[in-house]
Amino acid sequence: MKNQILGFIKAQPAPEQGRLYDRFYKFGKLFHLPDKRWWLNMISANPEARANIFFVRWKDVDDDGKKELQQGLSKVPGVFTPRFKSQLLQMMKKSNLHWIR
Questions:
Q1: Tens of pLDDT along 45-72?
Q2: Cβ–Cβ under 8 Å, residues 47 and 83
Q3: Domain check: are 37 and 27 in the same one?
Q4: How far, CA to CA in Å, does 12 sit from each of 9, 22, 27, 93?
Q5: Are residues 18 and 60 in the same domain?
Q6: How far, in Å, CA of 67 to CA of 58, rounded?
Q7: For residue 16, how many other CB atoms are within 10 A of its CB?
Q8: Are 76 and 45 contained in the same domain?
């Protein structure tokens, strides 16, 4: 299956190959996370938008859901950047919410 996907990517126009390979690589990192599509869509946004998307979902779930989302951040490459963290912490502070331990 992997070889078929890589073959498909190589058959695409050069400008699309990088984007498709990046998406394939990132999806592989998300394989064991619940709701892979949500994570994949979130990681394609800019850091501030990612923080907003994450926060909206995070604040609406129970503590176990919050912990699961928090753990997901460490498994998804390139999401938890300084700009993401800054925006997320601002929204948490404004809402008087705290990271779940």
A1: 999 999 999 999 999 999 999 999 999 9
A2: yes
A3: no
A4: 5, 14, 19, 45
A5: no
A6: 9
A7: 11
A8: yes
**Residues 1-49: tens digit of each pLDDT:** 788 988 999 999 998 999 888 878 777 777 778 888 888 888 889 999 9
Are both 44 and 82 inside the same structural domain?
yes
Residue with tokens 């990192």: 29
Tokens standing for 5? Answer: 């996907």
Do 22 and 52 have their domain in common?
Answer: no
Q: How many domains does the chain have?
A: 2
For residues 93 and 45, membership in a common domain is answered with: yes
Structural domain of 27: 1-31
Whether the model pTM is above 0.70: yes
Q: Where does residue 98 rank: exposed (0-12), middle (13-18), buried (19+ CB within 10 A)?
A: exposed
For tokens 């753990």, the residue is 71
